[in-house]
Amino acid sequence: MVNESVVATKYWHKLADGRVQCDLCPRFCKLNEGQRGLCFVRARRDQEIVLTTYGRSSGFCVDPIEKKPLNHFYPGTAVLSFGTAGCNLACRFCQNWDISKSREIDTLADAASPGAIARAALDLGCHSVAYTYNDPVIFLEYAVDVAQACHEVGVRSVAVTAGYINDAPRAEFYEHMDAANVDLKCFSEDFYQRLCAGHLQPVLETLQYIKRETSTWLEITTLLIPGENDSTEELEALTQWVVEELGPDVPLHFSAFHPDYKMRDYPPTPPATLTRARRIAVKNGVRYAFTGNVHDSDGGSTYCHNCQQKLIGRNWYNLREWNLTKDGRCRFCGTLCTGHFLAAPGKWGARRQPVRMANRY
Fold it and tell me: What pTM was estimated for this model as a whole?
């Protein structure tokens, strides 16, 4: 059994009936002594809300940054990925349910301090650290401390999140994030309530906040589930909202669903659905639209929105073409490609390298 690592939190307040309300996310869990929130990792202990999994992880792995997915944040570089346990949404289609839905502390089999993670990222040649596998907002205190330690040694921080968080913690969290991929699960309140036990509006507000109020690089992913959020009407509405509210330069990824968790009776997403979604996005003004979880070199590549030449050719997570100048412009017409790029592409490729942190750093 792995011992819990408990730290105090600040986003909570006491209620008149004696319970304590967690104010981290729109779920507003109201807890009696000893109870945990739906996220599992935040609990009431001694009249306050604590984080019970500080410094504990379900595992570490070096990945390509494109796997997060982030296509315009230092392409080709390596990222040290880790998560904890639990989640503050209850998505019936969760693709990482063995981690995000875990209710076992033994899931947290590896331990690492913020400084150890920063040192490991440097030693392993990682350009950034990603808080992923489960949603980092629920372990905000740990993620922020890791981000600060990483910034001290020149390593960037990446959040892979559903964006389900309240105003004050949102501001603190994104102050420390260099990039984020936010999972916009659909463009329907009914979908969020029925399949995620959540609400759409807080996610839209997170997207607007990141784009308008921070310097955090933003990309969006929508997992397309057959018969649920893949209609032409919904894709039209979603992509129009992105362009109107966030602008045309936010990369948008359409990812393929595979049957899992509590939705094993649904079929996998046909590649044609992803292609249709990408075409709708481009038609509505999204400059950088991608397909994911399928082998689609065209849908995974970056094109110049001005001359339509291929700027970054991708085959799965491998970079095959690079037609950007050192200052991030199209080599053919000189148009700026929005994003964060090195003078030359990274060379990590599609490798996946598990890392055991305990007793190493």
Answer: 0.95
